Structure formats: structure tokens, C-alpha cells
Amino acid sequence: MSTANMKRKRLILISLLLAAFVINLDTTIVNVALPTLVRELHASNSQLQWVVDAFNLLFAASVLAAGSLSDRFGRKGMLLAGLSVFGRAPAQPTARSDDSAETPSPGSPAAIVASS
Q1: Spatial CB neighbours of 101, under 8 Å, sequence gap ≥ 6
Q2: Cα–Cα dist 74/107, whole Å
């Protein structure tokens, strides 16, 4: 194999590993936020289960929609769109006065999953 081909394959592998990391990070954020929900909102175990289940349900529904779009517009484009939406989300200004963490959205990682 040529050196250029090996570099290209290495770049593709790094891109897909970055996409997998983003998906895991988004899911981890939900789990890390659970103790804060208990402390600040006095959420019960049942309510915490609803939070996790609602996130997973939205994630699954988003994967279906993103998969259809990925088939229609191409996997590479959807992967880049999902990564760019995920990357831009923390930079968006919010109307809140506190500096607490943003609620994760399952949409952009779903686009990444559907395209990888």
C-alpha cells in the first residue's frame, strides 16, 4: 500500500473513533447529570428512570430519522452534519442566568450513529 493510502485510512479511522467518542460522551452526560437532578430538583428514582428512558427513546427515534436522511443524502454528509451540530451546541448562547451544563440533545449523535 502506498503511504498516501495508509494516511487516508488512518484519517478515516480517527474520524470514526471521534464520532464514537461523541456518542459515548453525550450518553455519559445524561448519567453524570442524575445526581444533580436529585440534589437540585429532589428527583426520585422513578423520575430519574424517566429521564434516562426519555433520552434513550428520543435517541432511538432520531437514529431512525437520521438513517433515512443518511440513505438519501449520503453517510459522509450526515456524519459531518452530526459532528458540526454537536460541536456548535455548547457555543450557542443561552437565555439562562446560571452557568450550569446544557441538557444534551440526542439528535446530533443520532445522525452520527446513522452515518457510521
Answers
A1: 29, 33
A2: 17
- CB distance 37 to 51 below 8 Å: yes
User: From the CB of residue 112, how many other CB atoms can be counted at a distance below 10 Å?
Assistant: 28
Residue 110 clears pLDDT 80, i.e. is over it:
no
Question: Rounded to whole angstroms, how far apart are CA atoms 110 and 67?
Answer: 8
* Alpha-carbon distances, residue 33 vs 9, 14, 81, 89, 114 (angstroms): 36, 28, 26, 17, 25
How does DSSP classify residue 100? P
Burial class (CB in 10 A: 0-12, 13-18, 19+), 89: middle
The confidence score (pLDDT) of residue 35 equals 94
Domain map (residue ranges) of the chain: 3-90+103-115
Give the pTM.
0.67
Per-residue pLDDT reduced to its tens digit, 23-36: 888 888 889 999 99
Read off the C-alpha cell for 108: 446530533
